[in-house]
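ok trying this again, last paste got cut off
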Amino acid sequence: MIDQQVSLRGGAARLPVRPRTGRFLVLAAVFICAACGLVYELELVALASYLIGDSVTQASVVLSVMVFAMGIGSLLAKRLCGCAAVGFGLVEAALALIGGTSALVLYASFAWLGESRHALVGFSLAIGILIGAEIPLLMTLIQRVDRQDAGGAVADLFAADYVGALVGGLAFPFLLLPMMGQLTGALFTGAVNAAAGGALVLWVFRRDLGTRARWLLIGVNVTVIALLATATVLVDDFERAARRAVYGDGVRVAVQTEVQEVVLTGEGRDSLELYLDGRLRVSSRDEYRYHEALVHPAMEGPRARVLILGGGDGLAAREVLRYPDVESVVVVELDPAVTRLARTDPALSGLNGHAYDDPRLTAVPGDAFTWLRATRGRYDVVVSDLPDPGITASTKLYSAEFYGLVVEALEPRGRVVVHAGPLSSRPETYWTVEASMRAAGLATRPYRVDGRLTGFDAGPDRATGASEAPHDWGFVLGAPHAVGRLRIGPGAPALRSLGERELLAAGRSAERVRLRGVPPSTLVHPRYWEEP
């Protein structure tokens, strides 16, 4: 889609239909091709955000490269205006093949090569060039169908183009993605694209085609649709092979929910792993170190009513429920599929100690920010076990405004603990979390715990080596009053990895590398970015 006027040339076409009907069919093709083009754009943005992370950066890369490439495509299309019908047919066939298979190739490069940035830029450039070539060619064709003035032709074409973009933009999240998924949805879109472009040229403009040109277009379009159909048939096998390449051979559960992709691998206490959108969120090899450090320092003091934000896997709840004087626990989890899996999967429910069977626990589906704005409850302890702050979708959950809502939900003597990402590898992100908590009026006590065995909550781009993976977890304990020293409170259960000495060392370790003058993150000025 490009806002420009194109000089029009060419004689009247010999049409098998009346000019008014031919004009309608050209505009219908514009509508369909525009819808397909926007689906390709959104599919690239969505898949890149999942595979690489940081949706703001990926959307900026895709859209800026694509718009630049559309300008190049418009210039290149001038060479094809003399044979506009054949040129348009070949452009749509190429766009259908490249756009339709883009999701497959991106996911394959991620699964088997470990990164997909170069493929993302390449597809953005190629698709943008082909989309940019559409309008000049269509302008030539519609002028040959109906000799209306140039201004009227431009208005009609762009009206059909923009309405088609609206339909494609709405169809992607509400129809294609939930019903077909990204891979099949892109292949289906490519097939529709090829059929629309080929039908327009081979029927409406067939009298303008020579025999060789006609058979060339028929052969190209049949080949493209056959390739897309074959890929659609094999897409399930491809997904299974790609998942094995990413997650290993132990994949037991793989579900695409309305929120994210949920993958569970392994079965035993030493092999269970939970991935959300390609990020390792739970590993049974070291999760106890993380959850003990997250929960128990905050439980020193009043703890009758506990709120857990995130933590749908039930592992933070497991630690909270080990205290007999806890009266109620509320878990607010965005994705109900995660809590359902934590409740029903034998391995995961065994790991979380069957926390969801405890009558003291209540699971609430919803966004933590929205839920906090609506709640009137007050809690002694708030445990923030949310996705990494470097993920764009989580940025608001680490903002000063969010912590202001947490303060409103805390009892006067209450405490909040926040998972703030690895301090060793992302110190600026960690200290931004701490600054945001202080900006909301919380006194803070930072600490970090070593002994991390896996890339827990690491980004999905596997191009980084194991030596670059984080080796610690960073936490911040906060309260509306002075926090005092870090300690394990009386009545705490026996812990496997954390004691008073380890906790004091964790606090000193964080303070030694404190960054001064770090500004807080707010909703209007987010300061978290996932590192490349």
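PB: full thing came through this time. The first helix runs from residue 19 to 51.
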